[in-house]
Specification:
single chain, about 500 residues, eight-stranded parallel sheet, seven-stranded antiparallel sheet, 10 helices, Cellulase family glycosylhydrolase, glycosidase, GH, GH5_C
Length: about 500
């Protein structure tokens, strides 16, 4: 059934009507294609059909031995993948670690690589891209951390050295000496890490669902860390970029086409800017497939969680996160590569909203920290049905046959609006419709394009009517829907057309 929207969108399709018992859409209702290869084009991630891809997803990181064992209650399995796909998540940052890849000096654990590859296959078969994240926290076991194998480093805490635990153990003198060993490649630690990451890259070559390999999680500068405050540390970043390039070369030698993700040194989380690819301080990035992988954490909120400080500190989060996203803007303008926020979140809806609103405004993808298997030995409930679910399970364009211009989404009422400029592609624009936000179905409308998906589809597909801007709205029945803020996106004067609707139910 059609209705005319007062906003000027000339055609609409009612794809969900009030139903006594709303249907819950499963992953199978999405008719998902296996995840295909992504590559960088300027600041965009682009799929094999030439569409701009937006990634929403989660982290899944198994930090300690035995690593990545199916059914262990942590590692994602097929049922978890179905759950994630049903909620519209199309990426998982899957943690791997140096100590699991190479538990003995020079000896790669190929059985572990096989388990990693199996998990990649499970996720990518459901349309979920997999970022393989070389994860460390606190460097290694001698400090109560994880990531680097003990054989790779010689520094150790002294018996009298206090260990304050995460995150303050990064201030321990012995840990800083060990980080210096990493960046100076003392005892060949970077050589061995490059060998391990090369073996990982070789094992997953030919798997298009591999989103990329992230070289190192939250790298700490070591002894020079104080030089990073208050305005970043160009001298350390010069050494750090050389290390990232060395590891990138090791990956490229085994897998020339896999995207490689570089994370800023971890003082970024305290709002220090990155000097990566900032000539003449550091070289420009010439590799075609490098992606920036920053995090967006609110340090006052983290201190309240980990150190028991007053929760009122969270009132400062908006200011800090504005600074972090300003650093992302500066980096993007300077370097012109894509960004994916590979960690954020602490289950505080306000802090989450800050990240998600900033990301929507910039059309930047993200991976929430953290998801554990709910289908392991202890079972569990769907974590996205709690208070953070409506924030994370969003209506959004997963793939756009064009150039994104503007997007807003209101998780409180499901109002969504998106504008893009079309370009040639062999597949249409695909918009995932949240399975949490529309208990009585949804209304979808297109101005400058035609909705080609079936009524009630979890993926709304849109084809452009011409070369002019396309604007798509999704909202609950009876809602006036969202409007783009004045000045955002291209002005649209093109005609519109939509498919006629039919009675049906949409997931709730």
């Amino acid at each position: 059934m059609h209705r005319l929207l007062s906003s000027g969108i000339a055609a609409a399709v009612l794809v969900g009507l009030i139903a006594a018992t709303p249907l819950v859409a499963g992953a199978q209702d999405l008719a998902l294609a296996p995840a295909g290869r992504l590559h960088a084009e300027g600041t965009a991630l682009v799929d094999e059909f030439g569409r701009t891809v937006l990634l929403h997803g989660v982290n899944n990181v198994d930090k300690f031995a035995p690593f990545m064992n199916p059914g262990d209650g942590l590692n994602v399995n097929a049922q978890d993948a179905d759950l994630l796909a049903r909620h519209g998540f199309n990426t998982v940052r899957l943690g791997v670690s140096f100590d699991a890849l190479m538990p003995e000096r020079g000896q790669v654990d190929h059985a572990y690589l096989d388990r990693v590859a199996d998990t990649v296959d499970v996720l990518s078969a459901r349309g979920i891209h997999v970022l393989l994240d070389n994860h460390q926290d606190g460097l290694g076991q001698p400090w109560g951390g994880n990531g680097f194998p003990s054989w790779s480093l010689e520094s150790r805490p002294s018996p009298a050295e206090p260990n304050p635990g995460f995150p303050l153990f990064y201030l321990m003198p012995s840990m800083n000496r060990a980080w210096d060993e990493v960046w100076n490649n003392t005892h060949g630690v970077l050589d061995h890490l490059g060998q391990a990451l090369g073996a990982l890259a070789a094992r997953v070559e030919g798997k298009p669902g591999v989103q990329g390999i992230e070289l190192m999680n939250e790298p700490w500068p070591g002894s020079p860390f104080l030089t990073c405050f208050p305005n970043g540390c160009p001298d350390f970043d010069r050494k750090y970029q050389a290390a990232m390039q060395k590891l990138t070369d090791a990956v490229r030698a085994e897998n020339p086409t896999v995207p490689v993700y570089w994370e800023p040194n971890v003082t970024w989380n305290e709002t220090m800017p990155s000097n990566l690819a900032n000539p003449p301080t550091t070289p420009a990035i010439t590799d075609d497939d490098i992606v920036l992988a920053p995090h967006d954490y609110c340090i006052p909120a983290e201190l309240a969680i980990y150190l028991g400080l007053p929760p009122e500190l969270r009132a400062l989060c908006g200011l800090q996160q504005d600074k972090t996203w300003g650093n992302i803007d500066s980096f993007t303008e300077r370097v012109n590569i894509p960004t994916v926020v590979t960690e954020f979140g602490n289950n505080d809806p306000t802090v989450l909203a800050n990240t998600l609103e900033h990301a929507d405004r910039r059309f930047i993808g993200w991976q929430f920290w953290h998801y554990n298997s709910i289908f392991g030995p202890d079972g569990g409930t769907d974590p996205f049905l709690g208070p953070i679910g409506p924030q994370l399970v969003r209506t959004y364009p997963q793939a756009t046959a064009g150039v994104p211009r503007a997007m807003t989404y209101n998780p409180d009422n499901g109002d969504f609006i998106y504008r893009y400029t079309p370009k040639a592609s062999t597949k249409p624009t695909e918009i995932y419709v949240s399975d949490l936000s529309y208990p009585n179905g949804y209304v979808a409308a297109a101005d400058g394009g035609t909705i080609t998906s079936a009524p009630g589809a979890r993926l709304v597909t849109v084809t452009a009517d011409g070369t002019g801007p396309v604007t798509v709205k999704v909202n609950r029945p009876g809602s006036a829907g969202a409007e783009l803020p004045a000045g955002e996106g291209d002005s649209s004067s093109a005609g519109s057309s939509g498919s006629s609707g039919s009675s049906g139910s949409s997931g709730s």
